[in-house]
């Protein structure tokens, strides 16, 4: 490739709205351009690298036995109505109508579509296990798009879905994906932590998040360096952000897609509330869990948690109670069998002195907002109180860090196969609902996360697997014939063996150097005044080491 023929609009500075290093560098290195809030184009260099990320994911999915398909971005409302998520999904869903007034959405996720595919064409347990995936655009009208492609409104996700006849099968399928995700992140040289997103359930977790360690991460994770226990802490805090007063149920529809929750997390949540709360009711529609805090008989407030508590710790709610809960919350959607009530006196008792120590100034229940009511120092208190705690598994002191959620895997069980009636015949010839798992990884977000972990003041330092070119050849002064000729000569020799770019632009050499550092080509061959002696300089992007070398030795040095 020749720089003179390439489209590489680099910038000295990024726009002020780019808050994170990865956002700034992706703009400056000419990888992306913004089209609208949370909507981006990838330019040639950016798309080239994005495809490398995709291919790593694709290779690992293929080798784990998953089959690639391509679903539609436009999805019919009927499917979402069948699964009862059409109303539930809320404002994050982009909705549209066709010329006949039929309703559709731009898919924020694809459980319904994949379940529909198998329910029509899968008949027998003999065809199981089956694992399908796609790499495709997702659309979510995020309340706050930010950090460039890290939280955008159109983004590419690899989403996969597994189908099994029984729980053992699902467990196996899940473990395979778990391992594949680990391999993907290792191939990208990422430092990451897998966290339990639901630790409450007997027989292991239902859900894991893959967190890339980074200060710009929006999640807090807590982990034990000794035994490897790790969990998402931010949940406890983020629950607080979604406390709302009377209009809660409406507001709740706008919150994120589900994160699992455990009884401990409920307790954690209650923990930061004033200690006069004596009872909490937890109830769920299919997907999300709401907590109504009850003092005596009066509902004080409620917030969102998400599904799946350790039900062994809960008392099922009676018909009466469910009715009451629904009317209290003004909630008209369907509630299912998991509707439960828990009495949390003990938890509250145990917790109430833990963080807040009673009614700390600024802590109250009505219309709580992070920032306003839960100021950064209160949140910091919560974190540090947690951080110093000892691990429940091994007793070592826990540490905490910030993480970027790049992947999320989930055992769905029969949630979608039941609502969409996706069954197969088991070996006794009986219809059985499929057991499903779902597995998501954000392609663009991964790319941004790689940059967050790999850069310096001059630009991006790509891990080996992602470098946009392997080598660049830079003639210092293209007007000097011996320099240009030698550079062209070296370029010719390298181009069959390496992905190489020659910078044949009539630019000042300072500009060229800056560009190659910025876009992060790992090795630069600089052809300058020593060209007269048939010598060139090799410069390594990461270490910045330089080496003077005979031109003949260049190929050898790169091997
Ligand atoms: P978040 O908590 O950051 O909003 P999520 O939990 O809503 O993410 P999932 O539904 O679990 O996301 O989707 C799987 C993966 O898709 C995420 O782990 C993330 O890598 C990616 N992803 C989700 N939302 C976005 C977005 N708005 N922009 C870019 N990538 C995203
Ligand atoms: Mg989300
Ligand atoms: Mg999340
Ligand atoms: Mg998630």
Automatic annotation (TrEMBL):
Show the catalytic activity: tRNA(Pro) + L-proline + ATP = L-prolyl-tRNA(Pro) + AMP + diphosphate
KW Transmembrane (keyword) present = no
Q: What is its EC number?
A: 6.1.1.15
Keywords from the UniProt entry? Aminoacyl-tRNA synthetase, ATP-binding, Cytoplasm, Ligase, Nucleotide-binding, Protein biosynthesis
Q: Which residues form the Aminoacyl-transfer RNA synthetases class-II family profile domain?
A: 38-463
Where does the signal peptide begin and end? none
> Molecular function (GO) terms listed?
aminoacyl-tRNA deacylase activity; ATP binding; catalytic activity, acting on a protein; proline-tRNA ligase activity; transferase activity
**Location in or out of the cell:** Cytoplasm
Superkingdom of the source species: Bacteria
GO cellular-component term (any): cytosol
Look up keyword Cytoplasm and say if it applies: yes
The GO biological-process annotations, alphabetized, read as: prolyl-tRNA aminoacylation
Q: Which family does it belong to?
A: Belongs to the class-II aminoacyl-tRNA synthetase family. ProS type 1 subfamily.
Q: What is known of its domains?
A: Consists of three domains: the N-terminal catalytic domain, the editing domain and the C-terminal anticodon-binding domain.
Q: State the protein's purpose.
A: Catalyzes the attachment of proline to tRNA(Pro) in a two-step reaction: proline is first activated by ATP to form Pro-AMP and then transferred to the acceptor end of tRNA(Pro). As ProRS can inadvertently accommodate and process non-cognate amino acids such as alanine and cysteine, to avoid such errors it has two additional distinct editing activities against alanine. One activity is designated as 'pretransfer' editing and involves the tRNA(Pro)-independent hydrolysis of activated Ala-AMP.
Describe the subunit structure. Homodimer.
Q: What is this protein called?
A: Proline--tRNA ligase
- Name its species: Proteinivorax hydrogeniformans
């Amino acid at each position: 490739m020749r720089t003179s023929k390439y489209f590489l609009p680099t910038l000295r500075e990024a726009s002020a709205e780019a808050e994170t290093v990865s956002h700034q560098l992706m703009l400056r290195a000419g990888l992306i351009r913004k089209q609208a809030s949370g909507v981006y184009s990838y330019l040639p260099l950016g798309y080239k690298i994005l495809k490398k990320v995709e291919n790593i994911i694709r290779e690992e999915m293929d080798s784990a036995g998953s089959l690639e398909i391509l679903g539609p971005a436009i999805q019919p409302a009927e499917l979402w109505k069948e699964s009862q998520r059409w109303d539930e999904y809320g404002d994050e869903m982009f909705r549209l109508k066709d010329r006949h007034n039929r309703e559709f959405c731009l898919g924020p996720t694809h459980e319904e579509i994949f379940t529909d595919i198998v329910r029509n064409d899968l008949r027998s347990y003999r065809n199981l296990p089956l694992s399908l995936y796609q790499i495709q655009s997702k659309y979510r009208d995020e309340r706050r798009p930010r950090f460039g492609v890290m939280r955008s409104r159109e983004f590419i996700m690899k989403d996969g879905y597994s189908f099994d006849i029984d729980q053992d099968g699902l467990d196996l399928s899940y473990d395979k994906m778990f391992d594949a995700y680990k391999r993907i992140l290792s191939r990208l040289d990422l430092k990451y932590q897998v966290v339990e997103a639901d630790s409450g359930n007997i027989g292991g977790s239902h859900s894991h998040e893959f967190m890339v360690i980074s200060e710009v991460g929006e999640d807090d994770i807590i982990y034990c360096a000794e035994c490897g226990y790790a969990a998402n802490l931010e949940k406890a805090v983020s629950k607080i952000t979604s406390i709302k007063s009377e209009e809660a149920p409406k507001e709740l529809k706008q919150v994120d897609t589900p994160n699992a929750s455990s009884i401990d997390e409920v307790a954690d949540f209650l923990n930061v509330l004033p200690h006069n709360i004596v009872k909490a009711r937890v109830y769920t529609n299919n997907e999300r869990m709401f907590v109504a805090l009850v003092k005596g008989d009066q509902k004080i407030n409620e917030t969102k948690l998400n599904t799946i508590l350790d039900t062994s710790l809960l008392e099922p709610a009676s018909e009466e109670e469910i009715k009451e809960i629904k009317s209290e919350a003004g909630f008209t959607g369907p509630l299912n069998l998991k509707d439960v009530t828990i009495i949390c006196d003990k938890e509250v008792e145990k917790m109430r002195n833990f963080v807040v120590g009673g009614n700390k100034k600024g802590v109250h229940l009505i219309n709580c907002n992070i920032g306003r009511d839960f100021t950064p120092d209160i949140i910091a208190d919560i974190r540090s109180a947690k951080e110093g705690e000892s691990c429940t598994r091994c007793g070592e002191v826990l540490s905490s860090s910030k993480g970027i959620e790049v992947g999320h895997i989930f055992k769905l069980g029969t949630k979608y196969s039941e609502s969409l009636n996706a069954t197969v015949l088991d070996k006794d010839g009986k219809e059985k609902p499929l057991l499903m798992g779902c597995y998501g990884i954000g392609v663009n977000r991964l790319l941004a996360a790689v940059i967050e972990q790999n850069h310096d003041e001059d630009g991006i330092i790509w891990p080996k697997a992602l470098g946009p070119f392997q080598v660049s050849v830079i003639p210092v002064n293209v007007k000097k014939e011996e320099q240009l000729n030698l550079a062209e000569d070296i370029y010719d020799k390298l181009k069959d063996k390496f992905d190489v770019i020659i910078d044949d632009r009539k630019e000042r050499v300072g500009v060229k150097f800056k560009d190659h550092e910025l876009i992060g080509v790992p090795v630069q061959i600089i052809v300058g005044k020593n060209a007269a002696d048939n010598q060139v300089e090799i410069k390594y992007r990461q270490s910045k080491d330089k080496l003077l070398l005979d031109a003949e030795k260049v190929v050898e040095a790169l091997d």
